[in-house]
Amino acid sequence: GHTVTGSIFQMLKDSTAFQQLMQRIIQQEFGRLESFLIIKDGTLVLEEYFYGFARDQLHHINSCTKSIVSLLAGISLARHGRLDVDTPIVEFFPQCSATHDPEKRRITLEHVLTMTSGLPTDDDFAFNDSAEMVDRKLGLPLESKPGETFAYNNNGTQLLGRVIAALEQRPIDEFARDALFNPLGIAEYLWDKDHGIARCHNGLHLYPRDMAKIGLLILNDGLWHGKRIIPKEWIRASIMPRVAESAFFDYGYQWWYRSKRNKSWWGDAVRGSTVEHDMILALGFGGQYIMIIPDLAMVIVTTSSDNNEATGLAHKKVPMVIEEVVPLFE
Question: What is the pTM of this model?
Fold first, then answer.
């Protein structure tokens, strides 16, 4: 589809501050940004690429994949009249040996969505097929009571992908193409696979512009150009803060949430701004971010290669947006 573009300078009260920000980005103050996009009021007002990256280059979005899988879950569950997230996860897998285990029956779909299932986070993906993977993951002994403890868990998102495949009776990447990507005009992408099964926790490669479309879909409550792609109630449920990941972030259904209630891990959360605006985020290892600020009608996308966790640079994108980008538009 056609992307509406406009000049950022028509929207800014202080273009000098913006030019200074671009200088600081080039000096890698916020890590090594490879793309930086801002959409405001439905218009793409900034699209910059650095270090030889360009708009027609796919980026590995890492765990932003999880947030997209959650959207796909909402589409599929609604199609099958199964939007009740209190359903035990094992009910989607009648063949699985854990189906009759009373302890495992306490794990609901919502527990899996919010990473509070209590299942281990072993990250072993060396299975031969879908059924074996589900058996193995759901067969592991619990590490905590379902619903009690947040633990970042790739296995859970793999299980979500299996739920979708079971409901749709087809591979998740095929379902994604027809139910989400085609309607959004996302034509070019890659989805890494293990043993022929799409990696639901981290496998997608997208164009930054297409990451921005996912952000717009959230901002517009699941509508795309007037067409309903995802149930509004699923979007609303997904982006509510449901469990504290840490003092810094809350978590919904595979989407992150940050508000002024959360602590800042950097100096002053609202420097240059009167208030910290609530922010919904998809975030991927190395600095892949889709950030949505609903009350400013903004979507911000970054991709980067800040893969050394020790530097803390990957997470610099959040204070950059809160302290440097938002004040430009207030």
Answer: 0.96
Question: Is the separation of the CB atoms in 69 and 169 below 8 Å?
Answer: no
Token digits for 63? 């765990």
**Amino acid residing at 118:** G
Percent of the chain with pLDDT over 90: 82
Exposed (0-12), middle (13-18) or buried (19+): which is 91, by Cβ within 10 Å?
middle
Rounded to the nearest 10°, the torsion over CA 116, 119, 123, 129 is -120
Residue 269: its pLDDT value, please? 58
At 134 the pLDDT is 94
Residue type at position 135: D
- Asked if residue 272 has pLDDT above 70, the reply is no
What single letter denotes the amino acid at residue 320?
M
As a residue count, the chain comes to: 330
CA–CA gap between residue 215 and residue 219 (Å, rounded): 6
HSE (CB half, 13 Å, CA atoms) of 65?
28
Q: What's residue 270's pLDDT?
A: 55
Alpha-carbon distances of 317 from 40, 70, 250, 320, rounded to whole Å: 18, 23, 17, 5
Whose CA is closest to 260, among 299, 214, 295, 220? 295
* Degrees, nearest 5: CA angle 2-213-283: 155
How far lies 127's CA from each of 144, 151, 158, 197, 207, in Å? 24, 22, 12, 10, 30
Question: CA of 99: how far to CAs of 103, 148, 155, 319, in Å?
Answer: 10, 21, 17, 44
279-318 residues labelled b (16+ CB within 10 A) or e (exposed):
bbbbbbebbbbbbbbeebbbbbbbbbbbeeeeeebbbbbb
